[in-house]
Amino acid sequence: MTERTVYCGLVNDQYLGKEITLKGWVQKRRDLGSLIFVDLRDREGFCQVVFNTERLSKEDFELANLIRSEYIIEVTGELAKRADDQINPQIKTGRYELYANSLTIYSRAKTPAIYIENDLDVDEEVRLRNRMLDLRRPKMQANIRLRHKVTRTIRNYLDERGFIDVETPMLTKSTPEGARDYLVPTRREGGAFFALPQSPQLFKQLLMGAGIDRYYQIVKCFRDEDLRGDRQPEFTQVDIETSFLSQREIQGYIEEMLKEVVKETRGISIQEAFPTMTYAQAMEEYGTDKPDIRFDMKLKDLSQWAKTSEFGVFKNTVSNGGQVKAINLKGLADEYTRKTADALVDIVKPYKAKGLAWVKVLEDGFNGPIAKFFNGEDQVLIKKRLEAEKGDILFFVADQKDVVASSLGALRNHLAKKHALYDTAELAFLWVTDWPLFEYDDETQRYVAMHHPFTAPQNDDVEALKENPADAKAKAYDIVLNGYEVGGGSLRIYQREMQDQMFELLGFTDEEARKQFGFLLEGMDYGFPPHGGIALGLDRLVMILAQEPNIREVIAFPKNGRGHDLLTDAPSIVSMDQLAELHLKLKGSD
Amino acid sequence: MTERTVYCGLVNDQYLGKEITLKGWVQKRRDLGSLIFVDLRDREGFCQVVFNTERLSKEDFELANLIRSEYIIEVTGELAKRADDQINPQIKTGRYELYANSLTIYSRAKTPAIYIENDLDVDEEVRLRNRMLDLRRPKMQANIRLRHKVTRTIRNYLDERGFIDVETPMLTKSTPEGARDYLVPTRREGGAFFALPQSPQLFKQLLMGAGIDRYYQIVKCFRDEDLRGDRQPEFTQVDIETSFLSQREIQGYIEEMLKEVVKETRGISIQEAFPTMTYAQAMEEYGTDKPDIRFDMKLKDLSQWAKTSEFGVFKNTVSNGGQVKAINLKGLADEYTRKTADALVDIVKPYKAKGLAWVKVLEDGFNGPIAKFFNGEDQVLIKKRLEAEKGDILFFVADQKDVVASSLGALRNHLAKKHALYDTAELAFLWVTDWPLFEYDDETQRYVAMHHPFTAPQNDDVEALKENPADAKAKAYDIVLNGYEVGGGSLRIYQREMQDQMFELLGFTDEEARKQFGFLLEGMDYGFPPHGGIALGLDRLVMILAQEPNIREVIAFPKNGRGHDLLTDAPSIVSMDQLAELHLKLKGSD
């Protein structure tokens, strides 16, 4: 085995006229009788190799004749400039070709199950089953390397500022609060289970109690939730915690770090501070707690007007405590027929909206199924409120407040994407702050923590919290990027009295709190400093930086949408012996 | 909350005469009536704070009176030089004291369950139960930070050389080969289980097949083995794999990286190449595959001589295919009475040695229970062979080869430690190479892979492998430090034909091989480059660098020796509902 001189994709003038050795995968082979051309690929790119009978021994030329796509070979030869008319300006090394003097074939290859090309029109399941081949595609290689660049930038940023990388346990305690745990049965303690961590939350708080002062970890977390497009059973979190810093200081570090990541990976220097919006404003104007601010089209509240409207549906909804809100799709009325506009109701239905109303704005008034309900004054008012003019189309939802928000928020995102109202390369960060401390859980009819039960309230007047839990605000902050939540953080409760009262407000008995969080409470008894932090979703962040549509594109070996690993076929059946050792049996297996 | 000016442990001349703010934990408080002295601690060290009634408001002085050990406080005041006779040269900041102008108490604290001091005489279980307090001890903080420094150095080294950090799955497929898996039951696929990875071995090989070329990951791995002092159910591996490199090149990178780690963490520049020893030599001269070469005391083979010895036990052992070997504890004969020398048999008993014989070397001959069996010629021969002289004491074991090796190897380590024959601060790296490819498993009466079934043989003549499996050598290399295996690596099989034959030699049916490793075999069909790598045990490496006796000292939240987390009390019982969702029930729970 000769040492590689340089990667295929990095050959340059310094090697011209020299004998060099390349190693890589055969992308393509063209056969011209006594001449064989091969595009040789490695992780850095391509180099054209020429095999001819003049330079090669008879044996080696015969070998060259055997080469097929995806064979892995080593070639030693002389690097030359291509003739002017042979230059390929599309690729970095398009000015060179290597005249082979000798050849080694390391591995032959079956005809690949998928083409090793960026533009691949094949079902994702086929890609996942053939992930090794899929990862050979330059685009996937770029995604994997981008991911590494992101983590490296984050690590460098935090290392330089005194953050200490501390590993927390993967085999830990099951805590029923939050999402469902993945459990790990044990052999030594029959009937006892570890849980895989949903996040290192409690451990990082203990590390603050231990005086680590600044902690971080890039760490796998696990939630046995029902899966959605951008969820995986295991995901990676950039977990950060600090002591003695204010919310402003913590946000400052995270913002600076994210700017550094954007600069290193996308070459963009973001100069301005990330905008900030309260949770209330986000819900009011965007119908979501993670607004995509790359485009406008804000939700406008028409409830005041609707009270006096002639349109019974609007009027009644407001009288019954609901809302009427609308958005304005500017200048695109002509894109819609009555049929296609009506069809948009399918976008809002999953959010339980009972209907979607719309009008087009013409030169001389509104047009559409419900236009007749708007008198002249209505039209003036609404045009003013929605900054509407000829050529716009307005969409209305009348419903309960949360339904209006989620359905119009979803429609807003749908329309913006459909009509390309934003630059897909843009990166629009946004802080969302002043979150409610609690949310009401209809199922259990009680208040639950909106983030987690360790989030500090903005007002530590416990009586006030008790009286008005719905109005209580948390010292919590989310970082949103292009409409995705990429991170959430808060200042934490650091005093035992407050934590006890929080558990009480959340309906925990002392017994329950002690059983689940005893070690945290005991830690607090020995003193916690004021502390707070954040957890960023690495998969999602990289997905957005890579401009990919889902996180599976930035994970080397992901599960599919049903949580199954198609490459290794996991999860899978294990032997009865294995189960017996764990003191378990399957239900219905007697 | 005022911003911290500087860490307590980092105050220096530049702050003299200035008003600064410190935050930290109260180490100690001394009360002199109108003067209160406090040693304030943070992660960087200590600073003395003086509270007096001149500077402080009455309220703040009263507050200062409330302070107890481990309270967390913020102090703003003026930094001054101590009077010459007050300087404490033991600590970095011993020349300074801070005259407090104001005081905030963030957290009170119960009397700590353990002292926050380096020298702590308390049961380890108490420390583990109170791990947050334990981690406040400067020594533990230093260990945790050393660990981070090691990973940072490794990452920087590998990043600079084009290694790509790729995350592999934590929820993966159970493969019965190797140690016992930790299983993770699934809710969505009843009766199916994920397994936690024992190592990312197969995935990193696929990454080589995908053309990643250079991969690394610092990653948690899991083995459900019976625990020993330096084992944990979860442990951290520095996992590395490369394509197209020779064994020499791979070892070169690892060696350079480890030298960098030693330099960064211990300030030692190792100039010489790490010594190399074959497996056969290690077993022959040290009785172990991980020799501690900080001291000599090699095992000497006396079997040739024993054949003709008058000592029946020795003679018969050799006639029955066994060995007689001895070590020489130089100059320490006087340390042993007959009783204490005889008692050393307890050291070799766990290794199944039937006995331990010894003689002291006197001016005029051997002395001891078996001295009479050595005639004059014997004594000359043995003194020559063991380089023995007056004052030495020689220990003999006569037994089967493997018993001799393990028992004398263990005795050698025991004696060296007991008599401090090495400098505990020394770092003695050693490569052990030319490993057997197979080892014979008495239980199943077949050959099994000594490393794993993907290790490349040195001789790829399959017929030869079949005929003499016991003699087959692997392209495998271990890195040993101070008698601990800190890493093991190999070149891998990269061609399907060889891998098939290897599985056949190991007694796998085609069906079994396909079921367990099908995705690897299929990958090979699409072509693997020549590749190889290594896995380093991070916990053990850091333990040795920190000069700690066990890996729990360098893990923030370890399990105890029985695999239980005393801090959180995990594993623990989970609810029947949780089990039911996983389609499981406990055995005997009907």
Overall description:
Chains A, B: It is found in: Cytoplasm. The structure is a homodimer of 590-residue chains. Chain A is an alpha+beta fold. Chain A folds into three domains: 8-107, OB fold (Dihydrolipoamide Acetyltransferase, E2P), CATH 2.40.50; 141-277 and 430-435 and 474-494 and 529-554, 2-Layer Sandwich (BirA Bifunctional Protein, domain 2); 295-421, Gyrase A, domain 2. Chain A is built from 18 helices and 24 strands. Chain A has an eight-stranded mixed β-sheet with strand order 6-9-10-22-21-20-17-11, with helices on both faces. A five-stranded mixed beta barrel of chain A has the order 1-2-3-5-4. In chain A, strand 2 (35-42) and strand 3 form a beta hairpin. The longest helix of chain A has 23 residues, at 138-160. The interface between A and B is large, with 123 and 123 residues. Strand 24 of chain A pairs antiparallel with strand 24 (584-586) of chain B.
Tell me the number of structural domains of chain A.
3
What radius of gyration of chain A results from the CA coordinates?
A: 30 Å
Major beta-sheet overview of chain A: 8 strands, mixed
Any low-confidence stretches of chain A, pLDDT <50, length ≥5? none
CATH topology of the largest domain in chain A: BirA Bifunctional Protein, domain 2
Helix amount of chain A: 25-40%
- The H-level CATH homologous superfamily of the largest domain in chain A, spelled out, is Bira Bifunctional Protein, Domain 2
Oligomer: homodimer
- Strand % of chain A is 15-25%
Number of strands of chain A: 24
The end-to-end distance of chain A, rounded to whole angstroms, is: 58 Å
Give the overall pLDDT of chain A as a whole number. 94
| Name of the level-1 CATH class of the largest domain in chain A | Alpha Beta
* Shape designation of chain A: globular
Number of helical elements of chain A: 18
Q: Do you know the CATH architecture of the largest domain in chain A?
A: 2-Layer Sandwich
Most extensive contact: A-B, 123 and 123 residues
